[in-house]
Amino acid sequence: MKVLVPIKRVIDYNVKVRVKADNSGVDLANVKMAMNPFCEIAVEEAVRLKEKGVVTEIVAVSIGPKAAQEQLRTAMALGADRSILVETDEEIQPLGIAKALKAIVEEEKPEMVILGKQAIDDDNNQTGQMLAALTGMPQGTFASEVNVEEGKVKVTREIDGGLQTVELKLPAVVTTDLRLNEPRYASLPNIMKAKKKPLDVKTPADLGVDMTPRVTIEKVETPAERKAGVMVGSVDELVEKLKNEAKVI
Amino acid sequence: MSVLVYAEHDNATLNKVTLSVLAAAKEIGGDITVLVAGKGCGAVAEEAAKAEGVSKVLCADNDAYEHQLAENIAELVAEVGADYKHILAAATTTGKNFAPRVAALLDVAQISEISDVVDGDTFRRPIYAGNAIATVKCADEKKVITVRGTSFDGVAAEGGSASVENLDVVKDSGLSSFVNEELAKSDRPELTSAEIVISGGRGMGNGDNFEILYKVADKLGAAVGASRAAVDAGFVPNDMQVGQTGKIVAPNLYMAVGISGAIQHLAGMKDSKVIVAINKDEEAPIFQVADYGLVADLFEAVPELDSKL
Ligand SMILES: Cc1cc2nc3c(=O)[nH]c(=O)nc-3n(C[C@H](O)[C@H](O)[C@H](O)COP(=O)(O)OP(=O)(O)OC[C@H]3O[C@@H](n4cnc5c(N)ncnc54)[C@H](O)[C@@H]3O)c2cc1C
Ligand SMILES: Cc1cc2nc3c(=O)[nH]c(=O)nc-3n(C[C@H](O)[C@H](O)[C@H](O)COP(=O)(O)OP(=O)(O)OC[C@H]3O[C@@H](n4cnc5c(N)ncnc54)[C@H](O)[C@@H]3O)c2cc1C
To answer: Is the pLDDT reported for residue B226 higher than 90?
Structure first.
């Protein structure tokens, strides 16, 4: 079966972002960018399913600036067979992204779409669920285990109270949680090979979708800093402070 | 103008987080209706009817809603929501699962995990693991929103007397089914609503060593949490993870034991009132957010703490 893996170019998770002085957003100039960690897990899961013989083709797709080609090359170095960039420099939001992905789904007809559960920049946690709604597919979000069976997939989901397993008819949307797998590193020969794999570039107009943002960002601010605390010298001092100063025990 | 609040529950009792969502609804203003969907969830509807500020409770009691499957719940909420300007759910794994689906069905944006209501169109929400707070304004006629429970003080659970109406809308997509569930059982308070939380990290060494935290927690009536490293290493189950991609907590007292203080962990606990860090490495970043820091070996400090409480 064919699997579609949407991936997002985001700020590297090790970078601590700084809010711009004019409060228009965060400063992304010269910061290290990378594939969203949850998307790496999505690619890895697709590759493992291919290694098991369940999946025959993996198509990576990203919607974003030209530079997102880097992340698509990474996905192909990790094992995706080809990729599609829907190139736009406009601001894009989950509903618009889901509409673009729906158009790709209609062209490619994958049996499964594996996405990250959230992107670590905007922390929205929406795109997979929206795509599922628009395509009428069932969804297995926050997956920590995925088992494909004949015509269906069993997904174990990380929920607040523990774990829940659901069975979904294929085609289905799955979004990855952290413990689904540990992504591999791309080897140098695979990075070289990825350069020759096909990367199609399309525009939102080609897909005929309206990706106009529905939400405007009025301003972005730095959260209130915590005031500096004190170091205590002993457990006794800690207990005394918690009882008498902070009054929390 | 009216607001629809989706109730979070386990078919038996109303989850306290719903009271926080109701507080957000109150700030938006207008009549508040609570939708309870589940199976055998009549008691939950009665409970919701008593909450402060609720004018009506709709109860959809059907097999199709027993396990909160997103496919079914989203269709129900999208249909019922037609009459409301705002649709609110908690930013729990249940709310995060179905709310974007509702928004897409209605062709509107979804606003995730708001921490503040500015007005009916404008909200504040943390982005970049809480390292920035965005003020966002939504132009859509209808707004589908998830609410960060720890950012709103819940309304009173008692005092209201709303009417309960049974709802005969059955949405069963047939696309998904429930297989099973493994829920953590604990006598300790629930992590996201506990007054005191004690979390252990990779420094705990193994799962058995968490015993020393449980002892302190039980003396203080605290919940026990963990870092992702501790969960990944298999010391404790996933539902104990605090952080950007785990649970968000904001107790009166948060104690981080053997946790370095990665930004992803801080994102889940830095709104706590008082933070204590116990770590043997005085350079650990956790000390930068701690009100009280103790540089010590946790295997000595925690048992000593236990003996002095
Ligand atoms: C202040 C601010 C300014 C912004 N300005 C811009 C801008 O100028 N240009 C711009 O491009 N974006 C911009 N964005 C980001 C844009 O809003 C997000 O891409 C969009 O909201 C998606 O949300 P998310 O990534 O949190 O989605 P989530 O729902 O959290 O993402 C979940 C998963 O969906 C998939 N996914 C998400 N996005 C994509 C994508 N683009 N392509 C393929 N798969 C995807 C991935 O698998 C991902 O793991 C801005 C955001 C903010 C906060
Ligand atoms: C996409 C993404 C999402 C993530 N989401 C989360 C999340 O939600 N929550 C989360 O927690 N992490 C998350 N992480 C992981 C995060 O980056 C860190 O790896 C993790 O928080 C580290 O856990 P830790 O502090 O327990 O371990 P470490 O960083 O290894 O720290 C262990 C600490 O224990 C101390 N220590 C060791 N032995 C002792 C002793 N005997 N006495 C006292 N102190 C001792 C050490 O000095 C050290 O500071 C995420 C990462 C990614 C990439």
So the answer is: yes
**Closest ligand 1 atom, CA of A10?**
25
Residues A200 and A198: their CA atoms lie apart, in Å, by 6
Give residue B247 CA to ligand 1 midpoint distance, Å.
22
If you ran DSSP here, which 8-state letter would residue B29 be given?
-
A169: chain B residues, CB-CB within 8 Å? 174-176
**Cα–Cα dist A122/B150, whole Å:** 19
- Ligand 2 neighbours (beta carbon < 6 A): A 13, 37, 120; B 201-203, 227-230, 241-246, 258-260, 262, 264-265, 268, 279-281, 284, 297-299
Closest CA to A97 of A140, A136, A70, A126: A126
As a whole number of angstroms, the distance between CA A50 and CA A58 comes to 8
Q: Do B67 and A218 touch (CB under 8 A)?
A: no
What is the number of other CB atoms lying within 10 angstroms of the CB of residue B68? 22
Q: What is the pLDDT of residues B187-205, one digit of tens each?
A: 899 899 899 999 999 999 9
Q: Compute, in angstroms, the gap from residue B284 CA to the centroid of ligand 2.
A: 10
Supply the pTM of this predicted model: 0.89
Contact A111, A54 (CB under 8 A): no
DSSP notation for A161-227: TEEEEEEEESSEEEEE-GGG--PPPPPHHHHHHHTTS-EEEE-HHHHT-----SEEEEEEEPPPPPP
CATH number of A2-245: 3.40.50.620
- All structural domains of chain A with their residue ranges: 2-245
Kindly report the nearest CA distance between residue B163 and chain A, in angstroms: 30
Task: Determine, for residues B139 and A122 on separate chains, whether the beta-carbon distance falls below 8 Å.
Answer: no
Closest Cβ opposite residue B93 in set A160, A167, A179? A160
Per-residue pLDDT tens for B48-103?
A: 999 999 999 999 999 999 999 999 999 999 999 999 999 999 999 999 999 999 99
The rounded distance, in Å, linking the Cα atoms of B177 and B66 is 11
Chain B residues touching residue A132 (CB < 8 angstroms)? 70-71, 101, 104
Q: Does B283 touch chain A (CB under 8 A)?
A: no
Identify the sign of the CA torsion B224, B230, B234, B240: positive
Chain A to chain B Cβ contacts (< 8 Å)? 255
Residues of B109-148 as b/e, b for ≥16 C-beta within 10 angstroms? bbbbbbbbbeebebbbbbbbbbbbbbbbebebebbbbbbb
> What stretch of H or E contains A35?
strand A33-35
Q: Strands B110-114, B86-90: parallel, antiparallel or unpaired by DSSP? A: unpaired
Are B249 and B17 within 8 A, CB to CB?
A: no
Interior/surface letters B20-35, b for 16+ CB within 10 angstroms, e for the rest: bbbbbbbebeeebbbb
Amino acid, res. B6:
Y
Query: What does DSSP say about strands A112-116 and A172-176: parallel, antiparallel, or unpaired?
Result: parallel
Going from the Cα of A9 to the center of ligand 1, the distance in angstroms, rounded, reads: 8
